Amino acid sequence: MLDFSQPGLAVFDMDSTLITIECIDEIAALVGRKAEVAAITEAAMRGELDFAASLRERVAVLADLEESQFNQLFDPIPLTQGARELCQWLQQQNWRILIASGGFTWFAERLQDHLSVDAICANELEWRQGRLTGRVREPIVDAQRKAEALVDYAAKWQIPLTNTLAVGDGANDRLMLEAAACGVAFCAKSSLKAAADIIVDEADLAILIEVLQTGTAAHGKN
């Protein structure tokens, strides 16, 4: 059981977890290719495609978009219900918060500022003269890198892995949930639920506050 009387680390996926959208799908909508890109995103989230390869394929269709067009996707920031309340509660318990995302730093940095998150680990899009090149910088933040980020930041902040929490929704979050002492599948794909200690199927992150306080799990591997 997690100890909220001691410092801990909570690691969150971003897209469809802390925020309600899949950013890459909404970016693709700006060039009229949302359906095509969303289908690839969905397959990747189910674990049917290699994440890194599918990400490169999706980013390629975004070439030549202007950075100014991104602003409309995050104005206002599409926070998931309860995201702010859960983060504030964790911070009140002296817990650190990390965003580990297969999405993009452009969005994660703004969310970091908005929620006073301690650190982010996300993919960096390549820009040239204010426009996307259609490439993403290496190394890709995939499932393995997200799990490694949890371990690395726990070590950096001298937090035992026994006091770590990970929350995500897709197959790309499985290794992260398995690396944490407590893994939460939030409105998740079935492939992720099997790896979770806690399952939340209602789109309200604040539900987790009571669940974590009481140690109640909807589903467990304990």
UniProtKB/TrEMBL annotation:
- Cofactor(s) of this protein: Mg(2+)
Gene3D superfamilies membership: HAD superfamily/HAD-like
Q: What would you give as a GO molecular function for this chain, any one?
A: magnesium ion binding
Q: What reaction does this catalyse?
A: O-phospho-D-serine + H2O = D-serine + phosphate; O-phospho-L-serine + H2O = L-serine + phosphate
Lineage, top-rank taxon, reads Bacteria
Q: GO terms for CC?
A: cytoplasm
Which pathway, per its entry?
Amino-acid biosynthesis; L-serine biosynthesis; L-serine from 3-phospho-D-glycerate: step 3/3
The Enzyme Commission number assigned here is 3.1.3.3
Q: What class of enzyme is it?
A: hydrolase
Q: Is the keyword Oxidoreductase in the record?
A: no
Keywords assigned by UniProt, alphabetized: Amino-acid biosynthesis, Hydrolase, Magnesium, Metal-binding, Serine biosynthesis
Catalytic machinery residues:
D13 (nucleophile), D15 (proton donor)
* A GO biological-process term: L-serine biosynthetic process
InterPro entries registered for this protein in UniProt: HAD-like_SerB, HAD-like_sf, HAD_sf, PSP
Q: Which Pfam families match?
A: HAD
Q: Which family does it belong to?
A: Belongs to the HAD-like hydrolase superfamily. SerB family.
The protein's name is Phosphoserine phosphatase
- UniProt source species: Pseudidiomarina aestuarii
